[in-house]
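Same chain as my last thread, 416 residues:
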Amino acid sequence: MRSFIKRMTPEGLKELYRKLRGKILGLCFGVFGHFPIRHNRVACENVWGYGDNPKSIALALRKLDKSLDIIFIAGGNKRKRTTRGIKFVTSGSIRAVYYLSTARVWVDCNHKPYYVRKRSGQFYMQTWHGSLPLKRIEGDAEGLSEKYLAEAAHDTGLADVFLSNSEFCSDIYRHAFGYKGRIAMTGSPRLDNLLRYGASKNNKERSNVKRTRKSSEKGNAYRSSRRKKILGSLGITDKKGIVLYAPTFRGNGEDAGPVGAFDAKAVRNALSERFGRDFLVLVRLHPLAVSHGCSVGDAGSVIDVTSYPNIYEILEAADVLITDYSNTMFEFSYTGKPCFLFAPDPDRYKNERGMYFVYDKLPFPIAASGSELCELIRTCDICRYAERAQVFYRNLGVREDGHASRRAARIILHEI
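reply #2:
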């Protein structure tokens, strides 16, 4: 209903509301700026909800220091209670302004709006909401509005440290964001559980930690338990293989990717033939595609997991990923599990968004049609795929080992 009202409201009226709201919240920052800063208060924020890098960092902080006053500011969050010692506040509210104004540390994965005022003595950790980007972002992208770029520059100017997972991303922060400050090569906090509990058993390079036989058995049991819990929350047993189809958002919002051309039954059969087990097909659309009224199409042959709050838990439980231009292709393949790209329109997407990589040089099997996708699945050499991916990430200087949250939390504790 809320997304329907937003679509039906005239753009001029929405812009007037945004300006008025921004002025009111800006005035609130001025008032609360006279309140003392709480030196044990950390305000984590994600406008998409309770998730992404800020959630992982908040949980790591709670584990390391239970005396911290941790606030999580989340868009559309209706929680009125404290969970695991973390207090929830709605993004864009006057209460959120109060907590931001009085927190010693901010953690965010999106831009702070133009009306946000940072005080002397506050520390801002910007984590961004991607790891390796395929499509060009910020100042490297074409067609972004001056208003967007101005707000992005405002946020960059506030930041004291950016988190990075690679030399490649660190370079992007310099030229796309225009950031000249400190960059911490921690890895991606939101991927910690995926890397530690969702990795393929054959992925020997996922960690430098030596494991005894006993610890490995304990880890495998915990990994199996997590998978059962995640799938159980979706009403799925863990007896079948899981493939997640996650097409990305098209720039103009006119579609949700090639959902109509995706033949779930044919893909399921190809996977069963290749891996010798039955598969279930899960489909997850991008939040922006949903806000434009897109749907998964034939719900009879797939399970719609679009509303599931944490895509990384689904990736943790999945055995195979199929996407097109989403950076989940990189994140999932860190685990050593197979990822296939189903992309009938790479030229169109490249012209609309631009890409950092030559698409057909990516280390994934790429299909332009449904029949080609099924053939690639049947003939995929998993070992060769994993080797190509490892070489690709080494060349980009990627550093991911499942311990990024703790590194980021220790940076914050050091500042406090």
